[in-house]
Design goal:
single chain, 3-stranded antiparallel sheet, two-stranded antiparallel sheet, globular
Length: 116
């Protein structure tokens, strides 16, 4: 698995990320330096997340959200649970549109990070 170059890694900074806590039924904030994006950040799709940054200027259309492995488009996980269903999480489907899958489904990840 590829790793993040040490020259980049030394500039990665913590940022605040929001997530929904099913136990307390509240929106929580964590400080992370590497994360999975949320449905809100990629699609501006509010399930439980109603605040925080979004990256829709970067991921402006389906083509910009397609991730490939060995030249073939793949699903990839988002950190957002599906609304009213804690067994399913949002994914980006191989065509670049929003989807969801059971938590035991094997798909890829696309990590995010910010630099100073």
């Amino acid at each position: 698995m590829p790793t993040i170059d040490s020259g980049i890694r030394s500039h990665i900074v913590d940022v605040n990320k929001t997530y929904y806590d099913y136990t307390d039924q509240t929106t929580e904030t964590s400080s992370d330096n590497i994360w999975l994006a949320s449905a809100r950040e990629i699609f501006n799709y509010a399930s439980y997340e109603s605040s925080g940054v979004d990256y829709t200027a970067t991921f402006k259309d389906a083509a910009s959200r397609i991730k490939k492995r060995n030249g073939t488009a793949q699903h990839w996980w988002l950190r957002s649970a599906r609304l009213y269903d804690s067994r399913n999480f949002h994914t980006v489907y191989k065509d670049g549109n929003v989807d969801y899958n059971n938590a035991d489904y094997a798909v890829g990840v696309c990590v995010g990070f910010c630099t100073d």
